[in-house]
Specification:
12 helices, single chain
Length: 269
């Protein structure tokens, strides 16, 4: 079912399915909760699944102005409060992809008592380089000036493996439609927030919840080497590489990603 909850003055849209231990799926940039459709249908059989649209994305309201910045800490605070509004008092399994992973680090830092385990997919712990920060700010300015449409074209080859681009055109188009529908102000505010996010690499050593690290074998944005380093730094983390997948591994290879998540969750029982 879909619900709207009022959080920090915004309407947050969330899909809730199933019963059992709470499993929270946090989408990447600039998508919405539907990127987790294969995981929602799979894990609703064993867990109570929560898949929100972050503020300003999907059917959630944002209200960001042209110069606004939304920090990763703010997204994490939204999620913490959302769980409270839903009366979820037991710790959750938190699964985030890309920007959802940046939010996961802040959720651990600020809301540790609400966390049972971490699953991070195709993400980074390092802060942006000066060059990467500048690129994000330039993209934010271009989105505000021209709209979201150009991103739907510009991002595709970075998001998917060559094989996915060739044999899963419907998946690619679905993501492009989501990007086109995302308000430019929300995209720009998140780009600025990602550019300003803190360095988290040293903090990884402090993570004291079970952690699964998943990466697409052909991910050019958050490489397997970078993700392996994250897994090596987090105490007792589990690392899984998904063959044939790019940055959008949960959409590109859902069976394999679901198997990895399911095995991980089962190991915690």
């Amino acid at each position: 079912m879909l619900l709207i909850k009022r959080v920090h003055g915004r309407d947050i849209n969330i899909r809730i399915e199933g019963t059992g231990e709470p499993l929270l799926f946090v989408h990447g940039f600039p998508f919405d909760h539907t990127m987790w459709k294969h995981q929602i249908s799979c894990f609703a059989k064993t867990n109570q699944v929560f898949a929100p649209d972050l503020r300003g994305f999907g059917a959630s309201t944002g209200g960001e102005g042209l110069g606004d910045v939304v920090a990763m800490e703010e997204f994490a605070a939204d999620l913490s409060s959302l769980l409270g509004e839903l009366s979820i008092h037991e710790p959750v399994h938190f699964c985030g992809l890309s920007m959802g992973g940046y939010i996961a680090w802040q959720f651990f830092r600020q809301h540790r008592s609400q966390l049972k385990s971490l699953i991070v997919c195709d993400t980074k712990a390092s802060a942006d380089s000066d060059e990467a920060k500048q690129a994000r700010l330039e993209t934010a300015a271009k989105v505000l000036a021209e709209g979201s449409g150009f991103l739907a074209v510009a991002m595709v080859e970075k998001l998917f493996s060559p094989r996915t681009l060739a044999v899963q055109p419907a998946t690619v188009e679905e993501i492009q439609q989501t990007i086109r529908a995302t308000p430019p102000a929300s995209i720009a505010a998140s780009l600025k927030g990602m550019a300003a996010r803190p360095e988290m690499s040293e903090m990884l050593r402090e993570i004291d919840v079970p952690t699964l690290v998943i990466v697409g074998e052909e991910d050019a944005l958050t490489t397997p080497q970078e993700m392996q380093l994250i897994a090596d730094t987090i105490p007792n983390a589990r690392f899984v590489q998904i063959a044939g997948a790019g940055h959008m591994s949960p959409l590109e290879k859902p069976v394999e990603v679901n198997q990895a998540i399911g095995d991980f969750l089962s190991s915690l029982d």
